[in-house]
UniProtKB/TrEMBL annotation:
SMART domains: ML
Keyword Signal carried by entry: yes
Keywords (A to Z) from UniProt: Signal
Keyword field contains Signal: yes
Record protein name field: Phosphatidylglycerol/phosphatidylinositol transfer protein
MD-2-related lipid-recognition domain segment(s): 19-140
Signal peptide span: 1-19
UniProt superkingdom: Eukaryota
Amino acid sequence: MKTITVLVIVAAVASSVQAANCGVVPTQFALTSFISTPSPPCIGRQLCISVSGTLNTPIIEGSKLNIAGKFLNHLVYADNYDLCKLLADQGTPCPLPITTTDATVCINVKTNAPPNVGSNVTFAAFNGDGGTIWCEETKGVVVKNC
Ligand SMILES: *[C@@H]1O[C@H](CO)[C@@H](O)[C@H](O)[C@H]1NC(C)=O
């Protein structure tokens, strides 16, 4: 099955971590599950996320994945990706049809990620049509040197 991987670190954090939609509506992808490996995320290493859900709009070229980590309102981590490139790397090139229910994407956790600190991370995916695919903020994301 194909997977739409929009959330990157969300799944990698402890069960005590609170994840919530950013409040952006409407979204094009309704998430039902995700798996992230490894957990916790390792600085400088690959992190892969697999998600399942329902897509109401095809994901097309020009889509982006933006990750921003904040610690007490200071931006401590930022990374932006071409979402279609990430998907293509996993064998699911855009466009992704609305029949897509599963997808995986992998990124490398940047080496300047602050270790052992619980930061609030926003994951936002925007479609090439300008719509929001998904936006979620996860509180207390901890990345490690591992
Ligand atoms: C995360 O957000 C909450 C508010 O939802 C805030 O109280 C907390 O200080 C934030 N944590 C960090 C590390 O910025």
